[in-house]
Amino acid sequence: xxxxxxxxxxxxxxxxxxxxxxxxxxxxxxxxxxxxxxxxxxxxxxxxxxxxxxxxxxxxxxxxxxxxxxxxxxxxxxxxxxxxxxxxxxxxxxxxxxxxxxxxxxxxxxxxxxxxxxxxxxxxxxxxxxxxxxxxxxxxxxxxxxxxxxxxx
Length: 153
Prior knowledge:
Blueprint: E1 2-4, H1 6-15, H2 18-29, E2 34-37, H3 38-55, H4 65-71, H5 81-90, E3 95-97, H6 101-114, H7 118-129, E4 134-136, E5 149-151
Parallel strand pairs: 1-2, 1-4, 2-3, 4-5
Helix pairs in contact: 1-2, 1-3, 3-5, 6-7
């Protein structure tokens, strides 16, 4: 069982990083079992929305994408491509888990212990709650967590 972090989805969907694409091919083939969380999916969709807004020309300066979408919510109604790739990946054998208040409290402690940002600590708490020891992520911060086996692209 391997927990997939947001950057694995994004590298596959946005840049076709071969090692990340292989992860999803292996999931489809049943060679590995994958799990992710609703928090990860929210991170992925958020980034895909911003990227699509830039690619489709609604935003001219990528660093202002979030600001533009906040002030022009009408654009959000035109951004649908971000969901196509994400939904395709979710249609397979990938298991999606939710996060509980208990996991959030655990994440607060893990954030301090391992010096992780909030969402990364929440991912770690979710991994632990579901007894998953393998993490696919490009995030080097997880190297500080010795109990994990980190698979990096």
